[in-house]
Each structure stands twice: as structure tokens, then as C-alpha cells.
Design goal:
single chain; 86 residues; mainly beta; 6-stranded antiparallel barrel
Length: 86
């Protein structure tokens, strides 16, 4: 599995506090699996300094049928994609 580390802001929509879709890098992504909540232990050292840090891991599929796995975290200024996996 190839991993790409990024730190890009994203817009995330939730239903009942569970991610359902997002806009990332100018593309729309639908959540196409069951999202997993991420806690402090999965983040790199640079992110662990944030108190209350949490995020989500889920598979997203765009309009072209391309699917990636995304790790998102909630920062002070909103949601960010930390990594995506092909």
C-alpha cells in the first residue's frame, strides 16, 4: 500500500457525528466503508502535541470511481487530510 503524507485542509460532512463525504484537493469523495475513529496513538510525534486530537480513517471514492483510504484529523482551524493511501 502506497502512503502519501499531506497536510491539506478539507471540508468534511458528518451524519450523526460519522463522516459521510468530503471535498479534498478540489474533488468530491463519498465515504464508502465504515469509518474508524483515530486516537492519539496513531499520529506522528508532531501531531501528538495537540490536545484533544482525534480523527477518522475511511475509504473515500470520487466521481471517477477512484478509491483511497484517508486519515483525517481535526485541528484548530478545521479538518485536515494527514495521509492518503492508494
Amino acid at each position: 500500500m502506497d502512503a502519501l503524507t499531506v497536510e491539506h485542509p478539507t471540508t468534511l460532512w458528518m451524519v450523526n457525528d460519522i463522516p459521510t463525504r468530503m471535498v479534498y484537493a478540489g474533488r468530491r469523495w463519498r465515504v464508502t466503508d465504515t469509518p474508524t475513529r483515530l486516537r492519539h496513538s496513531v499520529w506522528t510525534a508532531s501531531l501528538e502535541s495537540h490536545t484533544g486530537l482525534y480523527g477518522w480513517r475511511f475509504q473515500g471514492t470520487n466521481d471517477d470511481g477512484v478509491s483511497l483510504v484517508f486519515d483525517l484529523y481535526k485541528g484548530e482551524d478545521g479538518w485536515h487530510v494527514h495521509r492518503s493511501y492508494a
